[in-house]
Design a protein that fits this description.
This is Glutaredoxin domain-containing protein. This protein is an alpha+beta fold. It has 2 domains: 46 residues; 91 residues, Glutaredoxin (3-Layer(aba) Sandwich), CATH 3.40.30.10. The chain is built from 6 helices and 4 strands. It has a 4-stranded mixed β-sheet with strand order 2-1-3-4. β3 and β4 form a beta hairpin. α1 runs antiparallel to α2.
Length: 145
């Protein structure tokens, strides 16, 4: 099991435990609502929300060929989640690299951020940008950029 699934699994387990306690105390409707909240939180923090990740070397190769930005991210990062949701459908046009699954991606992020694994780090035309505004990233996708 990779660490990308640890947070979602813990959220579901905690939600299940709390919900079980509520069921035994006589509040099944509250238990169902609370379990639903925990499952939604787990889904949002899972790798399923993001477009399919590729390796850093493949992302760099594709970016050089098509000029689209590379986004280095990790699950559980609220800033990555904010960027993903604010980009909407445009997120599919980017090359996503999960730094927890790709050591070369983690190394690229550390090189761009003084040794820190600060995400999201977006690389546009070879230049890294740490936690940029999603609107700015969307502008980098336009043909005139």
């Amino acid at each position: 099991m990779t660490r990308t699934w640890i947070l979602p699994i813990l959220l579901v387990l905690c939600g299940s435990l709390v919900s079980t306690g509520l069921v035994f105390s006589g509040s099944p409707s509250e238990a169902a609502a609370l379990l639903l909240v925990f499952v939604l939180l787990a889904g949002v923090n899972s790798p399923l929300v993001f477009p399919r990740s590729i390796g850093a070397l493949e992302a760099q190769r594709r970016s050089a060929a098509d000029g689209r930005p590379v986004v280095y991210w990790r699950s559980g990062c609220k800033y990555c989640l904010r960027m993903r949701f604010r980009l909407g459908r445009n997120a599919r046009q980017l090359h996503w690299v999960n730094i927890w699954r790709d050591p070369a991606g983690a190394s690229a992020v550390r090189a761009a951020n003084e040794g820190n694994e600060t995400v999201p780090t977006v690389v546009v035309a070879g230049q890294p940008h740490t936690n940029p505004d999603p609107e700015w990233v969307r502008e980098q996708l336009s043909p005139s950029a």
